[in-house]
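Same chain as my last thread, 252 residues:
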Amino acid sequence: MTPLFVAGTAAIVLGIAIGSTGVGGVLLVPILTLVLGIDVKRAIAAALLSYLPGCGVAVVMYARRGSIVWRDAWPLCVGALPAAWAGAWATRAAPAELLKAAIGVLLLAGGLYALRPPNNAMSARRHLGSVALLGLGGVTAFVSALTGAGGAFVLLPMLLLLDMPILPAIGLGQAIALPIAGLASVANVQAGLVDGWLAAVLAAALSVGIAVGTPIAHALPQLVLRRLLGGVVVVAGASMLTWTAMRWSGGS
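reply #2:
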């Protein structure tokens, strides 16, 4: 039971981060693999399945606070459906090191942008067209399903670079995680990669953490939340690039 206890404890902490900043799920797979020694493909499968109830909690809580723009969420989710399925199946064959390096660069760019002083139009909502939203949904879903990262991990930096305000951006990240986790989990169950007990413990712990973290996001001033999110994203991006570089140097 010790590995499950460690996984659950880590998931509560990460759930608080997901609820308050939208980012945190990206660290779940590294913890499962590097700390607990779980096979990476099974770790990805368990993480994706565990996002379903937790992100369901987040969507309800963000929607009640008016932080999900549904006319933007629907095209994102539609674009995510086929890409999530494709990404889950691609996990079997595709090496993820180069992809993770690209994500690290994207995170650094988005995080550094968020840490910059906001312009005067920061509070105005940036409207994106349906084609752009479909494309963002597809890219987010494929990368998320391939690596086991939460949907917000990929989507948030892109939305920040497009000048979307913080809370709506986090809300969209929570919304797109549902179709990604659902479709990818169906493929992973068919492939026999899902550890039901591990996924259940992670799901319960993430849900508790997200329920705690979501009110934090709505209580903090927007500028503080923007800086907090930027700092988390920069650290995550730098960590991923460092880890990828170590893997490359170790394998060369």
